[in-house]
Amino acid sequence: QEQLVESGGGLVQTGGSLRLSCVGSGRTASMHTMGWFRQVPGKEREFVGVIRNWGGGTTDYSDSVKGRFTISRDRSKNTLYLQMNNLKPDDTAVYSCAATNVVWSARRSAYYYHYWGQGTQVTVSS
To answer: What separation in angstroms does the CA of 13 have from each of 6, 9, 29, 43, 116?
Structure first.
């Protein structure tokens, strides 16, 4: 059964760090691309970053997190990570990991992701 399970969220002060983990099972292990998205109540889901599961692990980030967040993966553990540094109150959201086989050019669109985790809350206090 395909499943993605996130962990690592919590409450942190501005400027602090958190590392989120996402453990996959089933077909998610062979999906081409793994991504992180975030959402706050009343707003659309927002692209955070993405990594190619194969072929060198190419990454892409939204402008709002570039230079502060880093995505990595451990294929032996089927685990995706999101290292978040220098956190800001605007980073407060529910963070979800997702998996897709869509072409790389569509990587930033949540619409094309097939599998989703349940999400983990990240709260950054000012």
So the answer is: 21, 13, 34, 23, 27
Model confidence pLDDT, tens digit, residues 75-87: 889 999 999 999 9
Work out the angle at residue 64's Cα, subtended by the Cα atoms of residues 4 and 122, and round it to the nearest 5 degrees: 45
Q: How confident is the model at residue 23 (pLDDT cuts 50, 70, 90)?
A: very high
Distance between CA atoms of residues 12 and 88, nearest Å: 9
Q: Is the pLDDT of residue 55 over 90?
A: no
Can you tell me the mean pLDDT for 3-7? 95
d(CA 47, CA 36): 7
Residue 48 contacts residue 32 (beta carbons within 8 Å): no
Contacts of residue 10, Cβ cutoff 8 Å, sequence gap at least 6: 18, 121, 122, 123
With contact defined as beta carbons under 8 Å apart, do 31 and 99 qualify? yes
Q: Rounded distance, CA 74 to CA 58, Å?
A: 14
83 close to 54: Cβ distance less than 8 angstroms: no
